[in-house]
Design a protein that fits this description.
Radius of gyration of chain A: 14 Å
Radius of gyration of chain B: 13 Å
Distance between the termini of chain B: 40 Å
Helix content of chain B: under 10%
Number of helices of chain A: 0
Number of strands of chain A: 11
Shape of chain B: globular
Mean pLDDT of chain B: 93
Shape of chain A: globular
Distance between the termini of chain A: 37 Å
Order of helices and strands of chain A: EEEEEEEEEEE
Structural class of chain B: mainly beta
Helix content of chain A: under 10%
Strand content of chain A: over 45%
Oligomer: heterodimer
Order of helices and strands of chain B: EEEEEEEEEEE
Number of strands of chain B: 11
Low-confidence stretches of chain B: none
Number of helices of chain B: 0
Strand content of chain B: over 45%
Largest sheet of chain A: 7 strands, mixed
């Protein structure tokens, strides 16, 4: 099946610094990627939808200037957490779609492995 | 907005059957996914329903009723490794997730 790679898997940064997380589709072209965050024992919350070659669409309550998303190519989207604070510590997960869902396979949304961000 | 409800926790015995219900009220609907998520890991795909009825995949089955806004995931012959969180997600081009149901399998 399709593979989505996310890097780094774990990162620790100092408060006030910025950190970048990469999401790559390894064997398919993803015109759309999704970024989620997940706090412990909570569900995935969609942060933004990343479209190749255009600006990301952010969900309500997500700060655009704090969570910068760039989707420069069909296989790479990046999430940059700027001026990170301890409350930004979370599990960040990307997913990519390679085609509209179809009944036969159903699974056309692939998740990266996730990135644990700890801000100290 | 999206409203997706599922029970918070369920406990069952090894070898038993557990049914996880999911009800949804969403602005759009283009199918419903079930995912399994172990602690600290990304979700893994279990099933996808877009038409009413039952989809069976080995020990896991999923059912959908679009008119009722209802789905369930059925886990049969439970194994200890099935202890995880199970997420119901409605697809409307993007996925909206329920809060997840933590299933604990006891020996």
């Amino acid at each position: 099946g399709a593979v989505v790679s996310q890097h780094p898997s774990r990162v620790i940064c100092k408060s006030g610094t910025s950190v970048k997380i990469e999401c790559r589709s390894l064997d398919f072209q993803a015109t759309t990627m999704f970024w989620y965050r997940q706090f412990p024992k909570q569900s995935l919350m969609l942060m933004a939808t990343s479209n190749e070659g255009s600006k990301a669409t952010y969900e309500q309550g997500v700060e655009k200037d704090k969570f910068l998303i760039n989707h420069a190519s069909l296989t790479l989207s990046t999430l940059t957490v700027t001026s990170a604070h301890p409350e930004d510590s979370s599990f960040y997960i990307c997913s990519a779609r390679d085609a509209p869902p179809d009944r036969a396979s159903g699974n056309t949304i692939y998740f990266g492995e996730g990135s644990w961000l700890t801000v100290v | 907005g999206q409203n997706i409800d599922q029970p918070t926790e369920m406990t069952a015995t090894e070898g038993a059957i557990v049914q996880i219900n999911c009800t949804y009220q969403t602005s759009g609907f283009n199918g419903l996914f079930w995912y399994q998520q172990h602690a600290g890991e990304a979700p893994t795909f279990l099933s996808y329903n877009v038409l009413d009825g039952l989809e069976e995949k080995g020990r896991f089955s999923s059912f959908l009723s679009r008119s009722k806004g209802y789905s369930y995931l059925l886990l049969k012959e439970l194994q200890m490794k099935d202890s995880a969180s199970y997420l119901c997600a409605v697809n409307d081009y993007k996925l909206s997730f329920g809060a997840g149901t933590t299933v604990t399998v006891r020996a």
